[in-house]
Structures are given as C-alpha cells and as structure tokens.
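Honest question from a wet-lab person: if I give you the sequences of every part of a complex, can you actually get the arrangement of the whole thing, not just the pieces? Trying it with mine:
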Amino acid sequence: MKKLTSRIDKERLLLGIAAPVLAVVAALVVTALVILATGKNPGAAFSDMTTYGFASDSQVYILNKATTYYLAGVAVAIGFRMNLFNIGVDGQYRLAAFVAAVLGGALAVPGWIAIPLVIIAAMVTGALWAAIAGVLKVTRGVSEVISTIMLNSIATAIIAYLLQPGKLARLEQGGTVVSTKPLPSSSYFFTIDAGPAGELWGFIVIAVLVGIAYWFVLGRTRFGFDLRTVGQSESAASASGVSVKKMIATSMVISGAVAGLIGMPTLLNDSHAFSNDFPTGIGFTGIAIALLGRNNPVGIALGALLWGFLERTTNHLEFQGYDKEILGVIQGVIVLCVVIAYEVVGRYGLKRQQQKVGAELAAQAAAATKKQEVA
Amino acid sequence: MKILYGMQQPDEGTITVGGEQVTFTNPGDAIARGIGMVHQHFMLADNLTVLENVVLGAEKLYGIGGKARTKIREISDAYGLGVRPDVLVEELGVADRQRVEILKVLYRGAKTLILDEPTAVLVPQEVDALFDNLRELKAEGLTVIFISHKLGEVLSVADEITVIRRGTTVGTVEPRGTTPKQLAELMVGSELPTPETAESTVTDVPLLEVAGLHLAQTDLEGIERIILDQISFTIHKGEVLGIAGVEGNGQSELVEAIMGMRRPDTGTVTLDGADISATPTRDRREAGIGYIPEDRHRHGLLLEAPLWENRILGHVSERPNSRGPLLDIKAARADTERIVRAYDVRTPGIDVTAASLSGGNQQKLIVGREMSHDPKLLIAAHPTRGVDVGAQAAIWDYIREARREGLAVLLISADLDELIGLSDTLRVMYRGRLVADADPATITPEELGSAMTGAATGHLEHTEDDER
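Yes, you can. This is the full assembly:
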C-alpha cells in the first residue's frame, strides 16, 4: 500500500513538471516556425540565445530582473491561491514605489532606519491600494478583476499628477526626465560585487525570504490552510468555520503588501528615484509568471528566471538582425501553452489517479474473497 | 450510466442499440440513438416556461412556437403526464418538474429512458404517480432503465433487475419470485442491514435547544419569503431527532442556522446550556458540533485536496491537526491513517485526492472526521444519500453508536425508512415550519408522506384504517 502511495506522489511530481516543460517546448517550436517564416535561421537564433544567455554578465542581469519578477509572481500567486485575480498588482507596485521614493528622498536619517521605513511604506501603500478592491468585493460584491483594473488606471493618473515639476518631482537630465528627489546614497540597498559581470542586487535576499515565508505560511500554518480552503471551495470553507469575507479582504491586503515590494529592488538597488521611466507593466508579467510557476514558490522562481533569460537574450537577438517582437511571441505562446498544458495534464492526472484507486480497490477485494475461500 | 449517455467513454466493452453496435462520444450521439436521461438533479431553468425549457437546445425539431406546443400536448396526453406547456417552471412542484424532465427527453425522440434515482426527492404518493407514468411509457413500447437503491421500488416497477456492485454486474433477477431481502443480499453480498435502533437511550438532559428561529429572505423581485417560521425544538443527550420533509422546505437553512453559517432574524440556539446564537461557526464546531453536510462535495470536502488535508478541514484549530498557529502535519496524517482504518474508508492511501474516492468512502471519511473530535451534537443531513448499501449500513451503525454514547443527533433525511428506523422523535417540516410530530415506533412512511405535502398536521397517530 505504501509503495502505491509513493508511486502516486512521484507521478504527481512528474506530471507537475511535465506541464511547464511541455509548454516551453511547444513555445520553442512555435517560435522556430515564426523565425522560419521571417526567412531567418531559428537554429542560429537559439544557439545565440544560449551562449549569450549563459555569459556571466547576462547571468547577473537575469538574476536582478528575476528578483523583481519573483516578487510580482508571488504577489499574484497569493491571490490565485484564494481564487482571486489580483490584476491590480501593477497599480499597487507603481503607487507603492512612488510613495516610497518620495519618502526615501525626503528622509534624512541613517540608512538602517531609512531603508526599513521605505520598504514598510511601500508595503503599506500596496496593501491599502489592494484593500480598496478587497473591501469593495466583500461589502458590495464588486468583482476584484474589474475594480483592480480600474484602480490601475487611477494609480497611473495619481502618479502622473503628482510626478510633475513643482509637485513631488523635478526635472532631471537636461529636462527630459521627470523624477522624484533621489534617495541619499546611505539609503541604497547593499549589492554583491560580481566583478566585471556587474553588481548583483542585494534585494534578491529579500525575495528569497518572501518565497520562504510564502511557502511556510501557506503550507504550514492554520492561516494558510484556511486561505487555501477558501481558494478551493468557498462553501466548504464557510462550513468549516472560515469567515470567507474576512479571508478575501485579508489575502487581498497581503497580496497588495507583497506587490508593494516589487518596485523596491529597482528603487533601492538601481534607479534610487521614481521617474517617468520607472519600469511599468511588471504586475502583468507577474500574472504570467505565477501561471507558469503553478503558484509554487520554486516554480515561480524558475518562471521568473526564464522570463529574465528570455528578455536578456531576445534583446541581444535584435542586434543580430532578428525582429525584436520575437520576445512577445515566445512569452505569449508560453503562457498560452502553460494554461492548456496544465489543464490537459491535470485532467489526465486525476483520471489516472481515479483509475488507479479503482484498480487497487478491485485488487484488494479480489484478494479478500480469495482469502475467504481459503478459510 | 454516464457511459450509456455518452458523457464518458468506456475503456472496453460494447453498447448495442436495436441490434446495432454503437459508440457514443457525447450526449448528442446518445440522443440521436434515442437514449435520453433524466438526471437526479433537475436541469431546468426556473424563470422559463415549461414550453421554453422543453424546446431549449432542440429548437430545430419543431420550432419554438405553436407546433412545439402541439407536440408537447400530444406527448403529454399520450403518456398521461399532464404537463401544461405555458406554466413557469418555478411554479411547479418537484413531481411536476420531474415530469417536465421526462417530457423533455421524449420530445427529443428518446426510445430508451434512463432515470437516475428518480424517487429520491418524491413523497410516497408521488412515487406511485411516477410509477403509473412509467407503466404508461412501457405500454407504448418504450424502454426504461430505472436506477435506484430503494429495493421495494425496483421490485414493484421493474420487469428485470440487474444488480451492480462496485462496478460489476453481480446478478440479473426477475422481480417475480425475488424478495427484497434476497435482492439486498445480492447488493451487499451479505445480510441485509436495517436502520432499526435498539432500546431507547434518551436521557432528560437537554443538549440542543432551538427556540423561535425565524428567517425571511427577500428575493430578486422584492417578495419576502419566509424560510424558517418559529422553529423550536429540543434534543436531549442520547436522542435522535429526525426531521422529515420534502427537500427545499427549509431544512438546509435550519442546519445552516444551527451551524452559524446563516444568521436567523430572530431566535436562539443553546448548546449544552451555553447560548451560541451569536457565535461564529468555528467556535460552534470547537464547542462540539459534528456536521455531516447534505452536499458533501460543496460543504464537506476539498475534492482536489488529499485525504489528510480533508481530515483537517473544519477542525484546523483542534488537535491533532495543529499546535498553536502551526499545522501539525505529521500528527494529522497519522490520525488520517487511523480514521481510514477505523471507519473502513476504502482507499489505497491518504495522499489520493478526495475526488477519487467513491461517494460512500468519502462519506465514511467525513463521519470519521466529525466523530474524532468528541462532538456533543451530531448534525447529519442526508447522511446516506448517494452511498452504496454497505457504507449505508456502516453509517447507520455510527449514528447508533453516537446515540449510545450520549450524543444528541439531529437527523435530516428524505429517506423515510431511515428516519423512522433511527429516530427517537420525529418532526415533519413543511414550508419552513415544523407542522407535525410523530412516534417513529408506530408511524408508516405513507402517513409521514401526507404530512410532508402539508395534507396533515399536528400529532400524527397511526390509524389502522391506513393499512390497506
């Protein structure tokens, strides 16, 4: 009996890995066809991507990018585990980064006080912005998809209004870039020097800690169990004594707080200010990465790394005479394939398990009758 | 049955319809071959008329207007169904809705009808009427496959009975010359279980007192409907209180009010001397309420989660599942193994998902889980619905055992034999009120049935006249 249990587990693991691998392979095939259609050689493109992508400076770039993407993936995944589609991660992190940048620029205290304050301000801002959607959902029944999309637009408008010279920002670089007052260098987050390859952002440590906390809280605590219960079946959750509404609001707030962290690697390790060229759209990247990583802390990390890798290498392809739109094609196809592959593999797995259980029980029953006959 | 109706594909084996071997890949194929299914849960749109429901999805056959109406009348008259095409479905009772379902199938030209547990929602008088309809269909040359776990019904309506147990055919018998007992033995493979309880264990210590529960709900059109109307009762330690009633008369809401999932407008719930009227569900569970929900898939299980997580469900704040705010996964898993053994849950392991177990085994897991936290009160809503006869007997045993150990049990069921057999006290619920009470020792299912339709109220006495 024990053997069968472990076999099912191993199979589940295998099936879990099968889906993303299948999706990536399918995406590569489609991409190859697209490159072929443009009259170029896909083989050369892929080999260029591999050699360039694994160069040491690329590795540092990818890890830095992945730090941001990982946080975005986790923020979205918290919602997903609750069956909430927090599209608003995008607005939450931009508003949070903006508030944190303004605060960081205004603070004149030592770094060991300023840095935590900046991070906390970002998390609180993200949490509050997400809480609006959460409260609307539990009190008025407003779909979080609609409200967060709208909140994204509102966040954009608020930032655009405040990020003007004379308000909370000033002109930089000869009048082309509008930016908040830069953080004093004492408030920079530490970096790890990787020699000629560049500097690895220290915020990767925070990202790893967030990943561990995500795994621990969801998998090992009562709160996490309640949260997953609501995500799997609201009716069963309320019958089991979970206050579904409270849980929806709480998880929205947590998702927003993590979303608040997304802008921090860039702000504290790279740009040190919020300007009108601060990266946008990472919230949507987070949705793709959470899907790709199956809301699993390790899976999201792999997804984030893959995304960073694709971005780095396709950028380079452009210089080799390929079309830069290849990136969009690969990413789009991967997400599409992942969703399909999970569905297919999931159904197959469930059916297989049911058959196995049936077969095992039939075997047990047969053995029992045989024993009876002997006795 | 799903295979026969094209909803699932067989691994091997063949289906032959009218001498011709066929394969169905979807329900459409089955319908094209003249096979129609009446599901246990009706698939009707309440806000449409009977005519609209019938033509829905079959508009091509006779259009949606006068021709369709004539056709419906024709079928209705031919088989004595008495269906009125222009009534809204929401105005129909359960039995009428079922006839609409049958008509829907016939309208699509079915020559073979599959009825899945058609009597589960009917009172005895309605069952008789349904059987008359079925005989009519049979007389007109149609084939009926009647699935039921109620032996008496099968024996009275069928011409040939096939017994299926654990996915295999165990025997085919003629109803003439077969007793219910023989049939049941075929089904269980051993002696027939009955829901009889032994001597009374009722004490005079009240455990659950419900007083003056009232719940009204305003529907979308702004009409206020009274769902629970002045419900009061007391269950003592060691007592099983059975509530009979056709589904949808407020039983689910009553259970939800006692569990704290729904707030009644007025009224109090007292558990073991403590007023729990304003207590949240989790605290009520911790205070000792065990809950076997009527719809285990919706309220009792996480279907896609492994068994050991389902063992935690509903008791996450209690040992052995957690210590403080942290889960104790090792202890929870060990305890799941114990439940699986003690309650004979047939599963290859505790890591399989709840969805892969059969209904009976899922239910045994739920019963095991709820009994593992020393409940004082057990709420069992339709505890044996959709479970095989073997599991049914086991679940009855557990309820009897609970009663022996001094638990108070609130039993809600549509199975009148189960209610009469297990209960110490019987109440009948009709349109949100407890309209009648009866002594389970003397009452017959027919007498209960008349109270369930609102025809009789007050204290039901068994009268000799009723025995035909």
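Two things worth pointing out. Confidence is low (pLDDT under 50) at residues 1-5, 371-375 of chain A. The two ends of chain A are 23 Å apart (CA to CA).
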